[in-house]
Amino acid sequence: MAANSLRSALGARRRRFVLERPVDDPDGFGGRVRRYVDGPLLWGALSPLSRAERLRGGRSDVVATHRITIRARHGVGPPMRLKSGSRRFAIRAVTDPDERGRDLVCEVEELIEANGEGSP
To answer: Is residue 2 very low, low, confident or very high in pLDDT (cuts 50, 70, 90)?
Structure first.
C-alpha cells in the first residue's frame, strides 16, 4: 500500500523533458570546457520542493529545488541535467522510491541564467 502512494497518478507525467548529457572538451589551454548535448526524450512529473537563498560571489541568489519523477532508466544521475522548454534542472540526486525499478525520483535544482532568463 505504501509503495502505491509513492507512484504518480495516471496522466501525471505529462511534462516533456530532454535528458542532457555532459561532454567535456579540451579548451586549448590544458583545461576542459563542459557542454551539454541532448539525449533521450522523457515524460515526467514536476513538483516544487523549496526555495532557498544562497550567497554567491557577494550577492544573494534564489535557488529553487524540485522533484522530477520519470520512468526508470539506467545511467541517470549527476552531473546530467533535465530540460523542459526553456527551463533547465541540474540533477543532484536520484533514487528508486520503491526499489522495484519502475520509477526514478530526481532531486533537482533549477538553473537560472545570469541574464535573468528562466523561471525563478
So the answer is: very low
Q: What stretch of H or E contains 4? A: helix 2-6
Percent helix / strand / coil, the chain, rounded to 5:
5, 60, 35
Does some domain include residue 117? no
The residue-averaged pLDDT of 93-111 equals: 93
- The CATH number of whichever domain residue 20 belongs to comes to 2.40.10.270
Q: What total number of domains does the chain contain?
A: 1
Cell of 109: 535544482
Query: Using CA atoms, how far apart are residues 111 and 120, in angstroms rounded to an integer?
Result: 9
Is 120 a member of any domain? no
Do 40 and 19 meet the contact criterion of CB atoms below 8 Å apart?
yes
Rounded CA-CA distance 38/64 in Å is 23
Query: pTM here?
Result: 0.77
What range defines the domain where residue 61 resides? 2-111
Beta bridge mates, 50: 65
Asked if residue 119 belongs to a domain, the reply is no
Give the CA-trace dihedral at 19, 20, 21, 25, to 10 degrees.
170
